[in-house]
Amino acid sequence: MKKLLTTLAFVTTLASTLSADIARVEMGSGLWNATESGTLIYKDNVGTITYTSDEKENSAAYAWLLIKHPIPVIPNIRLEYNTMADTGVITGSVADYTALSSSTASVDITQYEVIPYYNLLDNTFWITLDVGVDFRFLTLDYTADGVNIVGGATNTSYSNTTSLVIPMGYARTRIEIPTTEIGIEADVKIYNGSTVSDIRVKLDYTLDLGLPIDPGFEVGYRVQSYDITYNDEKIKLKLDFSGVYAGLMLRF
């Protein structure tokens, strides 16, 4: 039994070593067709403004870069970028402005993410498992149209920008289908339970052209949710984005 266990451990280690990539660079970009829903509420000592999404589908750009290196103690790195946009209606009034019956607003979110991670499994028996931390740098641009500025212009625009840094747990798993160039992948990012979550599932195909760079394409589904309060409890953001995404990839 001891010899059997020793042999099994050796074979497992050997398979992991032979199948693991020593170093790798991957990148991709595309469009995410996301449908939004939810609200954005701002309160001050005068009143409350409530923004409600019109729940329309919008196309958002995304891009990512993955860098894997052979130094075990130093984490690998994944960088991500994406934008999201939403439009809706607003009601209420605050110290700066008052919404009219015809007032509308837009919310534009830009995300930059830095994800240091470690490989727990690195294409071991065609399975990859990564864990790490996602540092999400979020910028929210809010613009209200057709509002009255208190003590100023009427039927005009008001805008505000807020920036946040959200640390999130990160896990990614991938299965390479043997004898094909097809991969099935899923990743999850979570902060404080379900306060902020980001879940993706995708299928990709890589073209093996015998070149130093292998092109490919990906298609998947993404669900992103925010339910957070910030700026000294003045702003409550509760928005969900979900939909299909597709893009092109390059693997070095």
Detailed description of the structure:
The structure is a single chain. The chain is mainly beta and 252 residues long. Helices cover 7% and strands 73% of the residues. It contains 1 helix and 11 strands, in the order H-E-E-E-E-E-E-E-E-E-E-E. It is elongated, with a radius of gyration of 23 Å. The two termini are 43 Å apart.
Overall outline: elongated
Distance N to C terminus: 43 Å
Number of helices: 1
How can the largest sheet be summarized? 11 strands, antiparallel
Count of β-strands = 11
**What is the average of the pLDDT values?**
90
Find the structural class using helix and strand composition: mainly beta
Helix proportion range: under 10%
What is the H/E order? HEEEEEEEEEEE
The fraction of residues in strands falls at over 45%
Uncertain ranges: 1-20
